[in-house]
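ZP: hey, is the NAP complex queued? I don't see it on the tracker
AM: it wasn't, my bad. submitting now with these inputs:
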Amino acid sequence: MASYAGKTVVVTGASQGIGRALCLELAPQRPRLVLAARDRAALDDAASACRERGAETLVVETDVTETGACRRLIERAVDTFGVLDVLVNNAGVGMVARLAEVKDLSIYERLMRVNYLGSVYPTYFALPHLQRARGQIVAISSLAGLTGVPLRTGYAATKHAQIGFFDSLRVELRSSGVSVTVVAPYFVRSEIRRRAVAGDGRPLARSPVREDDVMSAEECARQIVKAMQQRRRMLVMTLKGRVGRWVKLAAPALVDRMAERAVEAGK
Ligand code: NAP
């Protein structure tokens, strides 16, 4: 299996949740980690924990919705470490509201800017460097990128867009030596739902999911690193997620009901 020793790995959304857990999971392999997000203090804290585990680190405050910030992120990574081997597009924001309850339509644009364009921009600037290194791109999407989920119209749309983009890019890069891994987690314990945008455009500030009953960010990170090391095309998390993909072909309405029940049960 591939090792990330000495490899330069950029992770967006590294300040908390899955991105932070992923950096900590990679750190013992002694990579050069570039941690990007907006919250400087949280990034510094994550970077310090990564250094304690053996990684070299660089923190770059980045808002992935801004093209200039994404260009600077990649430039800083390459200027500091000389190469870029891996880009993990992980930064994301959630949404919890039925369309009929939405009071602020700008939510849809805001989510698209973070979850979709926030993966496109870093990938665009990283691509020439990744091609030189025959490196890899990882996109943290969601099961909501593979099927419809109630109360997540805006979120699911961004995650479908993300998968469409990276599936297409994978074909473009077929002979380049650069691999593209799309990850589709099920519910993972993090702040994403408390920070999710509600129908009024403000943070939901509570989680409708039974956070104690869902996968930990650490377990999610372990599975992502394994898929990265194998340069897998796609990682769909949980048995339910994997079976659901096949069931959708024969009985899509059944998968709609599974998604509805999962949201109602919060797990
Ligand atoms: P989280 O705990 O809320 O973390 C989200 C991360 O994204 C934070 O580091 C945040 O950092 C960063 N971020 C948000 N907006 C940003 C922006 N404009 N620019 C730069 N960074 C930004 O969420 P998570 O659960 O770890 O989610 C990580 C990824 O996994 C997301 O793409 C999410 O859609 C996906 N996912 C999560 C779940 C789940 O159940 N948790 C399930 C499926 C998929 P700052 O606030 O510091 O900028």
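AM: back. The mean pLDDT is 96.
ZP: great, adding it to the tracker
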